[in-house]
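Morning F.,

Quick status update on the modeling queue. The single chain you submitted on Monday has been processed. Sequence for confirmation:
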Amino acid sequence: MVGAAGFGASQAQTLVAGDAGALRSYSVKVTNTGSRTGDQVVFMFAKPGNLTAQAPSPLIRRLAGFERVHLAPGASAVVDFSVTVETLQMVSAGREGNSDFSSLSSMGDVVSTPGTFTVEFSTGGANADIEQLVTVTGGEIVLAPFPKF
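Structure tokens below.
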């Protein structure tokens, strides 16, 4: 049995769209509470919430990072993750048919878009062990345009 606990993840964080240098760091402590040595994978997921420039996303959550740790019985390890606007990137639904949103991107573009995201940390299963709200401010930025043929 492995347990997870978060450090420094108690308040909402803010990133600015297009600021590639901005990041937030999170640490997750994982402990082997069992009687056998084993490995555990800690997952980081990004889940879009209220997006100001995009239509509501059908995306449930996206794997944004992971790390595997080897733990002896009773041992703990701290796993560090960094979150940037690129970690929270998504594929644009585009302007087409989205007149209620201020999207400047075309359908299929990879964008950094303003809004709220939930960053989840989990050791497996459908439910997150730890959740952190992150707000992206600024305007929508196209990180990679969809190829035009």
